Amino acid sequence: MAFIEELLENGGNYIVQRSKGGASFSPVSGKDADIQSFQSLVRRLRERDGDGFEIFKEHPMSDRGGDLVDLVMVTIDE
Q1: Which pLDDT value is given to residue 78?
Q2: Among candidates 72, 28, 70, which has minimal Cα distance to 49?
Q3: If you write DSSP's letter for every residue of the chain in order, what string do you get?
Q4: How many degrees, rounded to 5, is the angle at CA 77 between CA 71 and CA 78?
Q5: What order of strands is seen across the sheet that includes strand 69-76?
Q6: pLDDT level of residue 1 (50, 70, 90 thresholds)
Q7: What is the predicted pLDDT for the residue at 71?
Q8: Distance (Å, rounded) from C-alpha 68 to C-alpha 73?
Q9: 29 phi and psi angles, rounded to 5 deg
Q10: What's the CA gap between 30 and 47, in Å, rounded?
Q11: Mind listing the pLDDT tens digit for each residue in 46-77?
Q12: Are the C-beta atoms of 70 and 61 separated by less than 8 Å?
């Protein structure tokens, strides 16, 4: 199974919403622990960008320090 397919099927510590030709990923809540946990998914998506999908938008959090992301939108190769 391809990396992106595994992410779409195994929600885990993030929320995934599938749309035609794409998907969005976000933390399960706004709690610090969930946001920090989501950053590992952001890193994995960045590392695998181009492997069946492309990141087209990341939303950095403006209300928290650091480079925390709370939304990643991707297009999926079909």
Answers
A1: 77
A2: 72
A3: --HHHHHHH--TTEEEEEETTEEEEEESSSSHHHHHHHHHHHHHHHHHTTSSEEEEEEEE-SSSSSS-EEEEEEEE--
A4: 125
A5: 14-19, 22-27, 69-76, 53-60
A6: low
A7: 97
A8: 15
A9: -160, 180
A10: 24
A11: 999 999 999 999 999 988 667 899 999 999 98
A12: yes
Give the number of other Cβ atoms within 10 Å of residue 25's Cβ.
23
- Residue 77 tokens, joined: 């190769």
Contact indicator for 24, 40 with CB cutoff of 8 Å: no
pLDDT of 10 reads: 75
pTM of the entire structure? 0.91
Q: Tokens 């991707």 correspond to what residue?
A: 74
Q: Tens of pLDDT along 8-54? A: 887 778 999 999 999 999 999 999 999 999 999 999 999 999 999 99
